[in-house]
Amino acid sequence: MMHMTLYWGKDVTLLIDSWKTDSWLSYLLTLLACFIFSSFYQYMEDRRLRFGSLASSTPSLPSSAAAPLIPKYRRSAKFMTAVLFGVNSAIGYLLMLVIMSFNGGVLLAVVSGLAVGYLFFRFSDEDPVVVDNACACA
Predict the structure, then answer these.
(1) C-beta of residue 102 within 8 angstroms of C-beta of residue 55
(2) pLDDT digit string, tens, across residues 90-129
């Protein structure tokens, strides 16, 4: 039976019926996987934003030799931005479904993984990436 309120315990089912935890070891490994997966989400978001800034940046040296290469470079950067957006959206929705298990430990693992991933991958003082959309899912 699926829980509809927040609960604390080692018995949890995530995403598929075969991913069930029945011991403390499997529960802790599941929490570690949730932590790593949510940190990876922040890493992928950073890569996507950087590719997006590369795709929209203007070339610094408009020399005649480098000019034919710029459209191909921008096209590939735009394509990679779109691919990373799709991958990152899928990861984000999977993390949302994981949190919908309503297990308190899973919730804390995902939120702390997102915070640590943000700290390591997206919180940099040099070369900030400006986001023009305040929506968390974009």
Answers:
(1) no
(2) 999 999 999 999 999 999 999 999 999 999 998 774 555 5
Tell me the C-alpha to C-alpha distance, in Å, between residue 35 and each of 19, 32, 54.
Answer: 16, 5, 29
Entry pTM: 0.76
Nearest CA to 98 out of 25, 23, 33 is that of 33
State pLDDT tens for residues 24-70: 999 999 999 999 999 999 999 998 888 777 777 655 555 555 455 55
CB atoms within 10 A of CB 112: 15
DSSP letters, 65-118, are TTTTHHHHHHHHHHHHHHHHHHHHHHHHHHHHHHHTT-BHHHHHHHHHHHHHHI
Q: Please identify which residue in the block is written with the tokens 């899928």.
A: 90
With CA atoms as reference, report the closest residue to 113 among 134, 130, 99. Answer: 99
